[in-house]
Amino acid sequence: MATAQRLLMKGTEAIAEAAIRAGCRHFFGYPITPQNEIPEYMSKRLPQVGGVYLQAESEVSASNMLYGAGGSGVRVMTSSSSPGIALMAEGFSYLCGSEIPAVVVNIMRGGPGLGDIQPSQGDYAMCTKGFGHGDKHAIVLAPSTVQEAVDLMALAFDLADQYRNPCVVMGDGLIGQMMEPVTFPEAPVKVYDKPWAATGKPPTRKHNIINSLYLDPEELERHVYHLFEKYERMRADEQRHETFMLDDAPPVVICAYGTMARIAKTAIRELRKTGVKIGLFRPITAWPFPVEALSGVVQSTKVFLAVEMSMGQMIEDVRMVVGRDRPVKFFGRPGGVIPTVEEIIHQVKLLSN
Amino acid sequence: MEGCVFTKKDYQSELKPIWCPGCGDFGVLSCIYQALAAVGVPPHRLAFLSGIGCSSRIPGYTTAYGFNSVHGRSLPMAIGVKVANPELTVLAAGGDGDGFSIGGGHISHAVRRNPDITYIVMDNHIYGLTKGQAGPTTVPGTISVTTPYGLSETPVNPLLQVLASGCGFVAQGGTHDLKGLTKMIEEGIRYKGFAFIDVHSPCVTYGREEDQSKELKAKSELLADLNHDPSDKIAAYRIAEEYGKKLYCGVLYRKDGLTELATMHKQVQKNAKAAGDYPRDEVFKRNFLVH
Ligand SMILES: Cc1ncc(C[n+]2csc(CCOP(=O)(O)OP(=O)(O)O)c2C)c(N)n1
Ligand code: SF4
Ligand SMILES: [Mg+2]
């Protein structure tokens, strides 16, 4: 087989192309910086492959178009950035409640409020814990390179279909805007049987209504138990992470994801050159948080340093795993300011003092 | 300061607009200054609310108390201000995307409550701030970054929509006629109730050639020259129907004396006063406590 072609692509465009190659033919969105290249790419490419691109009148509307299209069984996605994602919380909760697969891409920018349009990780808590009302969860994938974003897009559609649950891809403005060489996977699109989908009712088919309403509390309780049985399977089977320079059990471990993890890797390489024993633990799934893998690191670690492009959101999950036996320090910068390699090195040096 | 004479300068903030040179919004801003001076609104009695967009930057360029608020939410925000502080003169402004797309659902409800707010939409038929996506008033066939094969959707007709909601003041203007626009805004501010003004304000960077000032002038006609009677709603509907084709400038429709939110609010306050200093605790106990 010929080796797959390497292409130089911007993160946002690579994400869009990866979605199309994963079988996504329907995109609903509303413009917002810094992810406009995703809808722009989709508006051009989808019609070429028999798909539909539609600009909704708002993100609230887009999230409900997602609900409708996903409910009819097609692979569907939307993308937005922080303030727009907040508006999609309505549709997202219903997607979870009704068990409709869909993919939501959040290219995070600085907040709260309108904030700015610089890269940020300020939506970790919203995406992993607060994306819509009610008892529910969704897998949140956090790529740290453009190539990984491509790979995780395909995975996101598969996970969404496999679990009948929406899936979030959480990137930041830097991954969206950066250009890197990428290779698209050649694996065929997985096709899932969707007997529940609203595709019309021939006489051979059972009557089916997509619904998230259960007025009888005991019935709703049973439904939520059923959802949580799924979430438990996700927790057991879908935790993903990467470790970097942890083989010699360094006493200092940085926890970072996405763009921040990339910068941390550079800092770690520099520190290693000067003899500092240090490594990285990088969650790839922000939910389910890679609890098992991080637990395995605790014993050999003296101190953890969570580094985020926020005032500290992932750190709560790190602390939950690490407990009180080891200090978990924090360094982060909010507002769309990206912590630098030098700043991380400085923070690590402060730890050893 | 009441009774003072104000000039354009009194409404100008130190902020320099960062709109592209030639943007229509400069003209709208200057008309708003003039209209405020003509009405004599003391700057400290003025609240100016907007959503998000190039046009929504406008409150910052005035000396009014202002919010550059949330995309699409200038009207709920303005209603909040007006209800909390009915004595203020309240202006709301924003773009076509802000007002007719994401905020579209709010207009008819603002009209229904009829607060004394003047709502100015800088309608450039495009999303300016996010760099040129087609919007709710973009002309079919337009090629934009998100409509590479030409837009296939029909634009909204804001004039018809607002008229049909029952709005008592509906006007249309353009930045090709700043004098006319100033008068219209002045009349809107003086009008007691919700006044809606759709201003064709060209985006020189992402807008179509056909929507630039020169072309606006060519397709515009003054309603005053046509002896249009603004109290004739059917005639107003007919003019509104031409939105996007001809540009009829002036007040399409005006009806005074509609029930107004602020009036209702004042009445409620008056009633409360008339009720005297009835102890709140007593009211609470009587209404809510189960004995
Ligand atoms: C919830 C939300 N979605 C999207 C955006 C991004 N956004 C900012 S302004 C704008 C549209 C601008 O168009 P318009 O309202 O017509 O104003 P103009 O810039 O043309 O004056 C959009 C989509 C946002 N700020 N918030
Ligand atoms: S992009 Fe268009 S609307 Fe925005 S400032 Fe420039 S000319 Fe004006
Ligand atoms: Mg506009």
Protein traits:
heterodimer; A: 353 residues; alpha/beta; Rossmann fold; 2 domains; seven-stranded mixed beta sheet; 13 helices; B: 291 residues; 16% strand; binds thiamine diphosphate; binds iron/sulfur cluster; binds magnesium ion
Structural write-up:
The complex is a heterodimer of chains A (about 350) and B (about 290). Chain A has helices spanning about 10-20, 35-50, 60-70, 80-85, 90-100, 125-130, 145-165, 175, 215-235, 260-275, 290-300, 315-320, 340-350; strands at about 5-10, 25-30, 50-55, 75-80, 105-110, 140, 165-170, 180-185, 240-245, 250-255, 280-285, 285, 305-310, 330. By secondary structure, chain A is an alpha/beta fold. In chain A, the strands form three sheets. A seven-stranded mixed beta sheet of chain A has the order 3-2-4-5-7-6-12, sandwiched between helices. A five-stranded mixed beta sheet of chain A has the order 9-11-10-13-14, with helices on both faces. In chain A, strand 2 (about 25-30), helix 2 (about 35-50) and strand 3 form a beta-alpha-beta unit. The mean pLDDT of chain A is about 95. Chain B is α/β, with parallel strands linked by helices. Chain B folds into two domains: about 10-255, 3-Layer(aba) Sandwich (Rossmann fold); about 255-290, no CATH class. Helix content of chain B is about 35%, strand content about 15%. Chain B has ten helices and eight strands. Chain B has helices at about 25-40, 75-85, 95-100, 105-115, 160-165, 180-190, 215-220, 235-240, 260-275, 280-290, and strands at about 45-50, 65-70, 90-95, 115-125, 170-175, 195-200, 220, 245-255. Chain B has an eight-stranded mixed beta sheet, with helices on both faces. Chain B starts with about 25 loop residues before the first helix and ends with a helix. The mean pLDDT of chain B is about 90. Bound molecules: thiamine diphosphate, iron/sulfur cluster and magnesium ion. Thiamine diphosphate sits at the interface of chains B and A.
